[in-house]
Amino acid sequence: MIFPEFDPVLVQLGPFAIRWYALAYVAGILLGWRYAVRLVKTPRLWGGRAPTATSEQIDDLVLWITLGIILGGRLGYILFYSPSTIWTRPLEILQVWHGGMSFHGGFLGVCLAIILFARKHRIDLLKLGDLVAPVAPLGLLFGRLANFVNGELWGRTTDVPWGVVFCNDRIRQLEGGACVAGELPRHPSQLYEAALEGVLLFLILRLATHRFGFLQRRGGLAGLFMLCYGLFRAALENVRQPDAFMPNFPLGLTMGMMLSTPMLLVGGWLVWKALKQPITAPEPVQP
């Protein structure tokens, strides 16, 4: 399959361009915001307790998380994958519209935003993380689809029937007649990630919130998100092409695997700790 002639720019208005990549972030944030509000407005999910945050607080939290995603994602990419940019092309750090965002950097940025927001509003940190975790796969889904449209973060070469040749006339024109990914079929690893990190992870967390009462298990949802994401990302690194400028790590490891390992361990510990605590009925309100 030849990579479709996707144009990463949806609309060009003079020097101003509306890109699919930017719209993916907007869609993920807006849908995540509305889903979080819906969660706090569904009483049965909280087992008679008050929700972790009000809908008004979530409206405020969205801005904090957006800044965490953008700043953390971009700085994380530079630090983890392209540190030489800092001293060779420093202005490129600000060019977010060209791509180059790290999930792990964005995750750390969101964690910092949640910590600061929880301290400001005196909200339990782990419970606030439990509220944010179920909406995160929506952003991952749209982000990975945008990676596919951009023709970036492709997989390793393959002979599977659905392999994609990430090369077309538009790419050749942009790259001076060549295709960076070559002309051999590759795994569409962006779509694999959209399916696992986006769709499947959303369904797992949805089942946890709506069937197993995880919004009543402090730290359980945050841990389940980290555990599942770490597993999915580590597994998919086996078919995802590492960045050309990354060194060869021992034991066949990749940067994505190593960055996902702490998430896996911390996530597993949080889930174990949450499951040890039985769900108890709320104390009756004194008249």
UniProtKB/TrEMBL annotation:
Transmembrane region(s): 20-40, 61-81, 101-118, 220-236, 248-272
Keywords assigned by UniProt, alphabetized: Cell membrane, Lipoprotein, Membrane, Transferase, Transmembrane, Transmembrane helix
E.C. no: 2.5.1.145
Subcellular location, principal: membrane
Subcellular location, record wording: Cell membrane
A GO CC annotation given for this chain: plasma membrane
InterPro entries per record: Lgt
UniProt key word Transmembrane: yes
Gene Ontology molecular-function annotations: phosphatidylglycerol-prolipoprotein diacylglyceryl transferase activity
The keyword Ribosomal protein is assigned to this record: no
Membrane topology (UniProt): Multi-pass membrane protein
Binding site for a 1,2-diacyl-sn-glycero-3-phospho-(1'-sn-glycerol): 144
Top enzyme class: transferase
Pathway where it operates: Protein modification; lipoprotein biosynthesis (diacylglyceryl transfer)
One BP term from GO: lipoprotein biosynthetic process
PANTHER family associated with the record: PHOSPHATIDYLGLYCEROL--PROLIPOPROTEIN DIACYLGLYCERYL TRANSFERASE, PROLIPOPROTEIN DIACYLGLYCERYL TRANSFERASE
Job of this protein: Catalyzes the transfer of the diacylglyceryl group from phosphatidylglycerol to the sulfhydryl group of the N-terminal cysteine of a prolipoprotein, the first step in the formation of mature lipoproteins.
Entry's family note: Belongs to the Lgt family.
Protein name per its UniProtKB record: Phosphatidylglycerol--prolipoprotein diacylglyceryl transferase
Originating species: Caulobacter radicis
Organism classification: Bacteria, Pseudomonadati, Pseudomonadota, Alphaproteobacteria, Caulobacterales
Gene label: lgt
